[in-house]
MFS transporter (Streptomyces sp. 900105245), 485 residues
Amino acid sequence: MPDVRLASPQGKWILLTTVLGSSMAMLDSTVVNVALPSIGRDLDASLAALQWTVNAYMVTLAGLILLGGSLGDRYGRRKVFVVGVVWFAAASLLCGFAPSPVVLIAARALQGVGGALLTPGSLALIQASFHPDDRSRAVGVWSGFGGIGAAIGPFLGGWLVTGPGWRWVFLLNVPLALLCVPVALRHVPESSDEKAHGRFDVLGAVLGALALALLTYALIEARGGSVAVPVTAVLGVVAAVAFVHVERHRAEPMLPPGIFASRQFTAVNLVTLCVYAAFGGFFFLTALQLQVVAGYSPLAAGTALLPTTVLMLLFSSRSGALADRTGPRLPLTVGPLLCAVAMLLMLRVGEGADYLTDVLPAVLVMGAGMVTLVAPLTATVLASVDTSRAGLASGINNAAARAAGLLAVAALPLLAGMGPEAYRSAPAFDAAFDRAMPICSAVLVAGAALAFALVRRPAPGCRRPECRTHGNVTAPPLEGERPPG
């Protein structure tokens, strides 16, 4: 039974290690959007290259995150976590010195692999190391510091881009890794799951990531009209069908199809796909809109969205408690509708937009909507399956959110009619942005309708989330398996 106490020196070192590791991935998922205009100018990149800068990371992270957790359970959580941190830092170094968009995109894909190893591992280390009496508090501290990292990410990214340059957005991960790895090796106990056995579903993970990559390519490159686009789209669908086939016939699949026998679990994942597709498109385009059209500096653009994360940090735990009393149907309906209103309010943000009157109202409504829906979303996911599968259910939901976001970043510029050089022209980008926000709003309304029609109050006595404080805007918080004891 794990016996490390939270107040002990070792307990504090474990928390420091896991916070540093998860913060690397958290920061990268929030700061890169702010750096995109500067990356585009410096590397002479097209809009498609900027989309890939975001999506190459998300493709490998979403496709491999479930496999990453399984590797830690089998071969040692500390070992896989450390490998993930070193891998992530090495890929970040390559990003920081990338001489061209192609190299940057390839390095971002490698970053996603590292993120898939360290992201589930940071939570698993806490749950496997701390005494049962301290475990929930340790997870709460970890998730709270992770939320703070998410809050300062856009601000830090804007400051780095404005000051030493966009390359430091990636190079910052290297000193964090140099601090994290020795502490992990010295102070974090190794652990694994003795029940973990059988073959890894590597084929399923590869097919899932391949399907996402091919479909993303088809969506991003569709504007060019190349013959490769329909071919790639067909291959992406084939890979997706093959993924489903493999998962249905594997003895131990990465994504067991049987888990979707729960109608509640299926329903809440459909809601997740809608809301995080809208969020992915919103945060990608808004970071560009504020700089390209409104004329904000990278620092001002990064700071502009800070209230959303602050509201989540302050009120997410209260929102979860309220949803426990009212049931998830109401917050999962109202939350997306509030976010839909926020995206329509963003239509006020144009050339010379004033922050207090044009940007802040939309950001505050967006934050209120995310506060309302994210905690109940996670709680409903956990409550919709057997307690023994709660960690798997959370991982699937997290991967679904990331996949939805990356497909939205690929598809939304196409649907909004953005040309390959749109971000270089304020009028062209502004017009496309005004077409994109109603699309995001409509997707959120669809998510609210699904929640109202399909989500029901869970049975009493189901598992509740341990991560009650969070501020990540790119995916719902992960929940791991709880060790016995």
Summary: The radius of gyration is 21 Å. Residues 201-253 form one domain. The chain has a mean pLDDT of 89.
